[in-house]
Amino acid sequence: MIPQIFQTVPIEHFVYLSAVLFVIGVVGVLTRSNAIIIFMSVELMLNAVNLLLVSFSSYHQDPAGQIFVFFIMAVAAAEVAVGLAIITMIYRNTHSVDINDMSRLKG
Amino acid sequence: MNEALLLMKPELIVTVIIFILLILHVARENSSPAYLLNLINGLLFINFLCGFFFNREGTLFGDMYVTNGLIVLEKNILNLGMLLISLQATDWLKKKDFIVEFYVLLLTTLLGMFFMLSSNNLLMFYLGLELSSIPLAALANFELEKRKSSEAAMKFIMSSAFSSGLLLFGISMLYGTTGTLNFAQLAMLIDGNPLQLFSFILLLAGFGFKISAVPFHLWTADVYEGSPVAVTSYLSVISKGAILFVMASVLFTVFKPLVETWYNMLYLLAVLTMIIGNLFAIRQQNLKRFLAFSSIAQVGFILIGMSGSSQEATASVIYFVLIYVFSNLGAFGVIALVSAQTGKEEIDDYKGFYLSNPMLALVMTLSLFSLAGIPPTAGFFGKFFLLMAGAGKGNFVLITIAALNMVISLYYYLRIVKVMFMEKNETPMEKLQISLFPRISLLTCMAGIILIGFTTLLYDYIFSLSTSF
């Protein structure tokens, strides 16, 4: 089901790698001001989760984690589709995709 | 009839309505808004009625989907809220071009919530959650020409995407430590090792974003203010209620072994949420923004009830959400009418509201009394049962903080009442037309607020359905 070669890599390596990827994504969301780059960072977070799920799935010899990954990919695509449509609307209204310009609502 | 079909009845009916609307949209392109709205509200009413018949209990899809009396009741509450919001939105929707699209998106989120409520598996839960939040972002942007609306949608999709990222990281950690996604098996395998605690914190943060508990509440006020009124009321009542139901069931089943740990976390979240929500509500000038912070404060009270982790806790959370549906929709119904006919949404615009529109002012007052928890309105009993459930843990510091917060909340709810009844206005609002559908909806809300306050049957019924902890 899962090639033996992957199981020779210790599970900790996968966990560390995906934790680093996830943190890079979180930092990207929190610090960047371009809406499109923020969406890229969210994608990075989701891909870190995907990596983690696949490696745990291989570790447990259980296919559920891999199936989860397919659903996450599909949902992420839907999320980005809606998100990009909204960015287009924002651009039409403000001629900018900088989130610092989105300060009409505050208080 | 086939048992499997009956088990999935609520989902199937909503799906059928979505398809009816889509086919109608293609087949009869030129139908008038009034015809469409009558048809849709009729369909939603049938949907609500169907919730009471032929209910079955059981599981489907290899234990991924589960339904029982309590879940059916929760779905009925959501159906009722959906119907009330739809009735209130008619005035505003009549002037819009995309009625069918509006309802298709709205019903899709309802479908997502139903799947989320029935989920017995983390995958199903995640899919339901996303199905219920992605279309809402499109709905927040429904007033395409308004900059505020797209700004609200942007903030909503960003925070929702970020929070589902956190939630997923928690889910994957949980999967890693247990090797299963099924709720029942997870409950058996969770033993409280550090990685599971870590994943629990991430899951709680994800939930915190969705129910807008402090410190994850920053998106709420902006999104509520910028979205159209119908969408705001949907966000604050239906979507929040569904997540609260699911949060209660996930905490009470999956994380039952960690109850000592999450009690302290909920304690902290509840105190912060009540205090910050109340303090910020005091200084708001926009009515929708005001209700956003008031709903944040209400979530704080619900978290107290939830922290009780007992049969009373489940029952009181559901009971309170039902009352919250009536009281919040009463207030939002008035705001929807005013906003659709005059476009005014600031608190100062409501000066002298009683002189021009006495009935609407009364409806608003009663709803605000219920939100504040003044007897004999239903809101008092809702809060009473929540605090009773919370007090079951014997932590009276928490209950005292909650009682003090109820006093603060009384101040700002009464401020609106004072503005409506006692302040003079040089340019008062004209007398508003209340058409049939909003009238039915407001009357239902009033009946709910008053009648639930006088009868205990409903709470007993919910209590009998709740499973013991």
Biggest β-sheet of chain B, characterized?
2 strands, antiparallel
Q: In the CATH hierarchy, what is the class of chain A?
A: Mainly Alpha
Shape verdict of chain B? globular
Series of H and E elements of chain A:
HHHH
Q: Low-confidence parts of chain A, pLDDT < 50 over ≥5 residues? A: none
Q: What is the tally of beta strands of chain A? A: 0
Count the domains of chain A: 1
Rounded to the nearest angstrom, the distance between the terminal CA atoms of chain B is 34 Å
Strand content of chain A: under 5%
Strand content of chain B: under 5%
Global shape of chain A: elongated
Radius of gyration of chain B: 21 Å
Spans of at least 5 consecutive residues with low confidence of chain B: none
How much is the average pLDDT of chain A?
Answer: 88
- Helicity range of chain B: over 70%
Q: Which pair of protein chains has the largest interface, and what are the residue counts?
A: A-B, 46 and 46 residues
Order of helices and strands of chain B: HHHEEHHHHHHHHHHHHHHHHHH
Helix content of chain A: over 70%
By helix and strand content of chain B, what is the structural category?
mainly alpha
Describe the 3D structure.
The complex is a heterodimer of chains A (107) and B (469). Chain A is mainly α. Chain A has a single domain, classed as Helix Hairpins (Orthogonal Bundle). Chain A is elongated and about 55 Å long. Chain A has helices at 4-7, 11-31, 35-60, 64-94. In chain B, helix 7 packs antiparallel against helix 8, helix 11 packs across helix 14 and helix 13 runs antiparallel to helix 14. Chain B has a two-stranded antiparallel sheet. In chain B, a hairpin with a 4-residue loop joins strand 1 and strand 2. Chain B contains 21 helices and 2 strands. By secondary structure, chain B is mainly α. Chain B has one domain (2-465). The radius of gyration of chain B is 21 Å and the shape is globular. The model of chain B has no long low-confidence stretch (mean pLDDT 90).
